[in-house]
Amino acid sequence: MATVITSRYARAFADVVSGMKLAPAAVLQQLYDMVSVVNANQMLQRVWENPSIPAEQKRSLLDAIVARQQVSRPVRNFLAVLIDHRRIQQLAEIARQVESELNARLGFAEAEIISARELSENEKRALQARIETMTGRKVRAHYSTDRGILGGAIVKLGSTIYDGSVKGQLHRMKEQLAAG
After folding, report:
1. What is the arithmetic mean of pLDDT over 136-163?
2. For 70-87, what is each residue's pLDDT tens digit?
3. Considering all CA atoms of the chain, what is the largest pairwise distance in Å, rounded to the nearest integer?
4. In sequence order, what are the residues at sequence separation of 6 or more whose Cβ sits closer than 8 angstroms to the Cβ of residue 87?
5. One CATH from 2.40.128, 1.10.520, 3.90.1520, 2.60.40 for 2-104
6. Three-class secondary structure of residue 146 per DSSP
């Protein structure tokens, strides 16, 4: 249920970003900056989620933070909607969905790439180029490391996982030996 709700807010805000021809990267940066602000301050979360505090006071607090963080008016208004509808606790999830929605509209595929070690810039470019060739779309890649995969990489594209890790290969070999 929460996914349907967050998707609805994300699509609506992506419509605003597209309709107003805002710079998606700047809007996403502002959203993620506000996610950091909210996550860092539990008192702020409690105030914004408390139904006994008048909406005007909540928005006044939002305006003070927005001025300090240099957040654009559309992002401020979106945050006010989330506060008014008591969805601010879902801001991080909504921000990720806004990013996914904007990427899809711009023709980008999001890839999560997990490698056993930090990849060089050349390795990242080569891997990204292979993924772009496979998908036929431009790729926005997010990189992380996990020494537990022993070597190689795991690429997650939406719900599809390409496991080129040594750990994955060993697991597949074990299954083949057990089956044969």
Report:
1. 89
2. 999 999 999 999 999 999
3. 69
4. 5, 6, 9, 81, 94
5. 1.10.520
6. coil
